[in-house]
Design brief:
Number of strands of chain A: 0
Organism (chain B): Actinidia chinensis var. chinensis (Chinese soft-hair kiwi)
Membrane topology (chain B): Multi-pass membrane protein
Oligomer: heterodimer
Largest interface: A-B, 50 and 49 residues
Number of domains of chain A: 1
Radius of gyration of chain B: 24 Å
Structural class of chain B: mainly alpha
Enzyme class (chain B): transferase
Helix content of chain B: 55-70%
Radius of gyration of chain A: 23 Å
EC number (chain B): 2.4.1.-
Number of helices of chain A: 22
Distance between the termini of chain A: 19 Å
Structural class of chain A: mainly alpha
Shape of chain A: globular
Distance between the termini of chain B: 52 Å
Number of helices of chain B: 22
Pathway (chain B): Protein modification; protein glycosylation
Chain lengths: ~525, ~525
């Protein structure tokens, strides 16, 4: 293996690559340069408006996060999730798990130090100021730099150590693909959220899996779950891979016990203030599952919303039956990939499993948001080097599916800029040599691709320029949703098949090895 | 999508135009993101010029006083604004309204004006493309990174707001013509540049001597014929620019607007040049003299107070007049002119021109810190030629970029300017060190054991041997670390320790400290020019 690496390194030097001067300094150098650029892009996006800027009385996610800081700073932990005269839960009540609350508290301490007005109880409601915006933006930025970036570095090291392959410029390209994910940047630094923390923890957990540190993976993933319940989208992949691996061991029960202990321990640690009584525990739990908000929100490109054009789910079914329905649908959709991983756990299969699980959750689970597409996008970016086209395709439609949301936030300019930046980086000169475009050689397919891209471009323009007919005010949103949904279905089908093919390949390989 | 279908062909046959387009588009994406960032009063200056050239007839352009931002660029720039105003009117008629448009700040005008800067940067890209054509792909790549991703240009043009990329692009086109030996075109383009912005005239003597000796040679008759040809071309350009104003009898008014000598020696924020030391010396002497018991007349105008009027601001040292600065620039230029006279080589012209702008920056009258771009950008072209060039450029470009920091004083832009400089330094470091480790790897093998390594960066064990290939020496390293100290003091320690006292001190420190680096660069360039045959 060492020899092969040496040959590859030599090949790198010989190539008249545009990035030789960077990649020949090693992965750390590439990572450093790309991450500084990625931070620069994030800062540049952060000067644009946030969601709900100057839109009283409810404002948007920015105000929600600020309000959580205000609440956590001024009230004791036991009051955070409880409706009271001081904490009006109908106004952006805290509905994320405790780790988010702690993070809000920590950030509130910083804000209080520099700008006390922005987090004072009652009086700061709807607070908007130059300094307040900057400080809030910087809290996201620092979270990103402290959690997401190191996690990605760990992931890249683990990934290329595990696969033992890749030209150096491929590694740099891959880093750029993960760090400069336009959707993530737009939502976190434009719209305003802290997805970088939970996603960063997931990246760390996935990297731990790749480097065979299962206990660390459990710990990190439990933290991710405790920061944002949305992280559950990828839980089936972690669960099935680890279960499958344990079953392969000599002493499965002991292994499962070890992992279970870590998970329970982490949860207990995070939930400590709420474990005094069953009442307070259930109180928090009920806040985390806002089922009354309906099965889907706005126009999200998932199954329920798309099929509601034909079947009025919200009218036909009650909330409990919808809950059950969506639960069953989600589990059955993610079952194939779970079964594959339990049956034949592999690191590569695990990455596909992450993508499949998160896609099935996005498609079928309850209360899905446009922003939830960030979760399937993350494993897709892990696989960018193996499935470059798939990744680009998904990114394209993920961006499109968020377009109406970002238009409302007045983030069209960064949307255009970051989409262009992504396409440019994807086609970086000398960045990546082999593409799996051989999957799409036929002229019919390239025609289809061109047609679909054209459709999406036209939809962008139409959404901006044309006023929808009076009778169907959300006509264009629905069209965008339909197009994105159809593409996501295609992606989900492809990756599921791919994951199963993977296990066939690996079993074949094993058999060959045995015969040899 | 075409790129996706045949990536193999685009990679195996590297096409410099595509690659350069890629680099510039990446930069454009960042520029687009920076559209809502802070812009200085220069934004309103240029907006007013759009309105002025659109609403008024040509004879009134240099007479108008609707806004304090009167037109003070040469006529070609006015024509350029007139051209842009045609589009501005289509975008939003208020932009070009002389009275309603004053201090107009709607998104339409901001996006329109920012876009004009981005589009006009194409000239810079064209210039850099022409200069890079004959170079190897590695050098070319590095130069693109230095120029197309230049943090100074991003800060000045795309945040602070100016059209330096466009103007420097014209300069680079002219230089590329001269380097190729196409002197007539080069001279023509330079004349055009002078009619866009007269500040570029500092390199005029160098151009004059070089073209006289390089172009107008080959015997008396042929030489004279060429001199006439060149003279005709240059005069034609100037007639095209100033002709209409001569016709209306306004040429005096035009020059009066273009050369406002009443503005004083230094800007409110002192550009990091020679005069910083002169003022400091004066202050120091005044202090000593006062201590000795002599009574001296305290100057009425203080440098730290802002703009300086006609009264002498110096307590002890003689007053500096525009004429003195003019003579000083010429004296500083002299060695370079002699070299150009004796041996006019095309390969040296970029250095000479850059040196001329350095002299103008250091000794000129009312120099703005932005003027350092005039020599930092051309020097990027020669930065990859040798290790010494790279070392000098590394320090110079960081100092130049840092000296631009006070332009963006709001908190929102603080991380942006820091990150821009950081990214630039990192890319430069990796670029130069790879470039020169390749060239010197054979030499280092023999000498690597003898010399000690000096490098602040962590590197993988495989590159230990290359470590000494590119370093800036302990003086350079400590000087650059000193920048960090100056910045930390100004941003964090000063407000804590001194509070609101001595508010000008941080800026003063930046000026003095950067002036040291600029003086070093001047001396280095001078020595480099003298030492070449």
């Amino acid at each position: 293996m060492e020899k092969r690496k040496g040959i590859k390194a030599l090949k790198d030097e010989d190539e008249n690559n545009n990035w030789w001067w960077l990649v020949c300094r090693g992965t750390a150098a590439s990572f450093l340069s790309i991450s500084v650029f990625a931070i620069l892009v994030r800062v540049a996006v952060s000067i644009h408006p946030y969601s709900g800027a100057g839109k009283p009385p409810k404002y948007g996610d920015f105000e929600a996060q600020r309000h959580w800081m205000e609440i956590t700073l001024n009230l004791p932990a036991s009051e955070w999730y409880r409706n009271s005269t001081t904490n009006d839960l109908s106004y952006w009540g805290l509905d994320y798990p405790p780790l988010t609350a702690y993070q809000s508290y920590f950030h509130a301490l910083i804000l209080r130090n520099f700008h006390p007005d922005s987090v004072s109880l009652y009086t700061s409601r709807g607070h908007e100021s130059y300094l307040g915006k900057l400080l809030m933006r910087w809290t996201v930025l620092s979270s990103d730099m402290l959690i997401f970036f190191p996690a990605v570095f760990y992931f890249v090291i683990a990934y290329y150590f595990a696969t033992q392959s890749g030209r150096k410029s491929d590694v740099a390209w891959h880093i750029a693909m993960i760090l400069l994910n336009p959707c993530l940047i737009l939502i976190d630094h434009g719209h305003f959220q802290y997805n970088c923390i939970s996603l960063g923890l997931i990246v760390g957990a996935a990297a731990a899996i790749l480097s065979s540190k299962d206990l660390l993976a459990c710990f990190l993933f439990s933290l991710a779950l405790n920061h944002k319940q949305l992280s559950a989208y990828v839980a089936p992949a972690f669960f099935s891979y680890l279960l499958g691996k344990c079953l392969k061991c000599r002493n499965p029960l002991f292994e499962v016990l070890k992992l279970g202990l870590v998970v329970i321990g982490t949860f207990a640690l995070v939930w400590l203030p709420y474990l005094q009584s069953a009442n307070s525990f259930l109180e928090v739990l009920s806040r985390l599952a806002p089922f009354e908000r309906g099965i889907y929100e706005d126009y999200v490109a998932n199954f329920w919303c798309t099929s509601s054009v034909l079947i009025k789910w919200k009218i036909l079914f009650t909330i409990p039956s919808l809950k059950l329905l969506s639960f069953v649908a989600t589990i059955s959709a993610s079952l194939p990939s779970m079964v594959q991983q339990i049956w034949a756990p592999s690191k590569q299969g695990f990455l596909y499993g992450l993508l499949n699980a998160s896609l099935s959750f996005y498609m079928f689970s309850y209360q899905v948001h446009e922003k939830s597409i960030l979760l399937p996008l993350l494993p897709a970016s892990f696989l960018a080097i193996e499935e470059p086209f798939l990744f680009k395709w998904m990114m394209h439609y993920a961006l499109l599916s968020m377009f109406p949301l970002l238009c409302r936030d007045e983030l069209i300019l960064p949307y255009i800029s970051l989409s262009a930046l992504f396409i440019l980086l994807y086609h970086a000169p000398g960045g990546r040599q082999d593409t799996s475009d051989r999957c799409f050689p036929a002229s019919l397919k390239s025609f289809m691709i061109g047609f679909l891209v054209l459709c999406s471009l036209i939809l962008h323009v139409v959404y901006l320029a044309v006023r929808p007919p009076e009778k169907y005010p959300f006509l264009f949103e629905a069209m965008i949703m339909l197009l994105c949904f159809s593409q996501f279905v295609f992606v989900a089908g492809y990756t599921n098949i791919k994951q199963w093919k993977l296990s066939k390949d690996s079993t074949l390989e094993n058999k060959e090895k045995k015969y040899l | 999508m075409t790129g996706a279908k045949n990536p193999k062909t685009t990679i195996s046959i590297p096409n410099p135009i595509f690659d350069l387009a890629w680099f510039s588009l990446i930069a454009t994406c960042v520029k687009l993101l920076l559209i809502p960032s802070y812009h200085s009063s220069d934004f309103e200056v240029h907006r007013h010029w759009l309105a002025l050239t659109h609403s008024l007839s040509l004879p009134n352009w240099y007479l108008d006083e609707t806004s304090p931002w009167t037109l003070d660029y040469p006529p070609f720039f006015a024509y350029f604004e007139r051209f842009l105003s045609l589009f501005a009117k289509l975008v939003d008629p208020t932009i070009v309204d002389l009275h309603d448009g004053l201090n107009y700040k709607s998104p339409s005008v901001i996006i329109f004006q920012r876009l004009t800067v981005m589009v006009s940067d194409m000239v810079l890209i064209f210039g850099i493309y022409r200069l890079g054509r004959k170079l190897g792909s590695r050098e070319r790549n590095l130069i693109w990174i230095l120029v197309v991703w230049s943090p100074g240009l991003l800060i000045v043009d795309h945040m602070h707001f100016q059209y330096n990329g466009f103007l420097l692009g014209i300069l680079l086109v002219s230089l590329s013509c001269l380097e190729e030996g196409r002197d007539l075109v080069g001279g023509f383009v330079f004349a055009v540049l002078l009619c866009f912005k007269h500040l570029f005239a500092v390199a005029g003597p160098v151009y004059f001597v070089y073209l006289l000796r390089h172009y107008c040679r080959g015997g008396w008759v042929r030489g004279f014929g060429r001199l006439v040809a060149m003279g005709t071309v240059v005069v034609a350009v100037f007639v095209a620019a100033y002709g209409p104003f001569v016709y209306y009898g306004q040429i005096q008014q035009v020059f009066h607007r273009m050369f406002p000598f009443g503005r004083g020696l230094c800007h409110a924020y002192w550009a990091p040049n020679f005069w910083v030391f002169y003022i400091l010396l004066d202050k120091g002497l005044a202090f000593v003299v006062a201590k000795l018991g002599f009574t001296i007349q305290v100057p009425t105008a203080s440098f730290t107070g802002g703009l300086v009027g006609d009264s002498s601001p110096f307590a002890v040292l003689p007053k500096v007049t525009p004429l003195i600065t003019f003579v000083l620039v010429l004296v500083a230029l002299f060695p370079c002119l002699i070299k150009a006279w004796r041996n006019p080589q095309p390969s040296m012209i970029t250095r000479w021109v850059a040196y001329a702008y350095t002299c103008g920056f250091l000794f000129g009258w009312h120099v703005h810190e932005k003027a350092s771009l005039h020599f930092v950008i051309p020097l990027a072209i020669v930065a990859t030629q040798s290790m010494e060039d790279a070392r000098h450029y590394f320090i110079l470009s960081i100092v130049s970029c840092y000296s631009l920091f006070p332009l963006l004083f709001e908190a929102q832009e603080y991380p942006i300017k820091v990150l821009l400089l950081l990214l630039h330094s990192i890319l430069m470091w990796f670029g130069f060190s790879s470039q020169f480790s390749q060239i010197t790897s054979a030499k280092t093998r023999a000498t690597s054991q003898k010399k000690g390594y000096k490098s602040g960066l962590k590197e993988s064990p495989g590159t230990v041997m290359q470590k000494q290939a590119f370093n800036i020496g302990w003086i350079g390293t400590s000087y650059l670390l000193g920048l960090l100290v100056v910045e930390t003091w100004g941003q964090f320690l000063h407000p804590i320790i001194l509070g609101n006292r001595l508010p000008f001190l941080p800026l003063l420190m930046i000026s003095i400290y950067c002036a040291l680096g600029m003086m070093y660069s001047w001396i280095w360039q001078l020595r480099r020019i003298i030492s070449t045959r």
